[in-house]
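Late entry, written up from scratch paper. The run itself happened at the end of the previous shift, but nothing got recorded in the book at the time, so transcribing now.
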Amino acid sequence: MTTQKVRVAVNGYGVIGKRIADAIAIQDDMELVGVADVVSDWRIKVAVEKGYPVFASTPEAADQMRAAGIQVAGNLDDLLGKIDAVADATPKKVASANLEKYRASGIKSIFQGGEKHSLTGHSFVAQANYETALGRDTTRVVSCNTTSIVRTLGALKAAGLLKKARGVLVRRATDPWESDHSGVMNTVVPETIIPSHQGPDAQTVDPDLDVVTIALVAAHTTSHLHAWSVELTRPATKEEVLDAFRSAPRIAFLRASEGVVALNSTLEMMADLGMSLFSDSVTITGQQKCHLDGCRRLSIIGVTPNGRRDGIFPRGPSRLLFSVFAFRFIRSAPSIWQTAAYARDDRKLAYRAGGLGASSPVSVRSAS
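Output as recorded:
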């Protein structure tokens, strides 16, 4: 078995990219070769403070970085010449222009949910389609909303309970660090195209899902909220439905009776627990089930079920283990509000969070 570390770069050091970089930095079989960006303000200076080599994506960016006192390790081409794989977290539509550059350099690439499925021809959620990613050169990690859909509805499907699902998604307005200059205020903006893109996007991961979504953007930045009406394949009890969620990795239950009653109160708990779902909202009438789940902003960044790494990185020069590029930093996840308990199962998750250093066990029970 090879002990050679996989050399990885992050292109785009923003709200997603910085968390990917932190996660790579603590993996024992990966080396963070560097991060690339075009900004020269406090955002990229955080990378400097953490000791990450900084590369400029453009000549203009290099000049601005040097003027800001940032030591520039090279340009993007220099960085690509040093690595085996890249996680592209650049803004929407920017990443698509990078794919050919990565291919020409002979490196593996992972894109984020802002890009379209057609860019890579493959979309990824670890617990749903891990095997289909093996051997690929590139994939796209779907958005937090889409990942939430695939995970929660996939749990019902795996239990033989899902017939079809119709959901309303209340989306947050913008990333918190951009709320001073973008996003909506004192209004709600409906997405006028039905279905909204999240349902069809979930079908790029699992084509068998019968799902339709309607979305709107609200004036907050904390989390997304999903409200679901699900038709079951047969009459079922609430406990059967909860058992289906319990059996799935990365879904945790929260209790409204303990004060977790709104998106703001789930913020820290979701950061600690991962995925969570309002399970005291689960209501069943015959074969009709309704529930609410919360999905925090930020891309799913975590470790896959059963110890499989989320990332399309080779373990050795030629072997490619391809799954989603995400490491445990789960800040986006479906959340179930529950009246029972936080406990999901007897498996405890030891997770690594960038900035914390060593692995430590989660104090509540969660999925492995």
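The first strand starts at residue 6 and ends at 11.
(Scratch paper discarded after transcription.)
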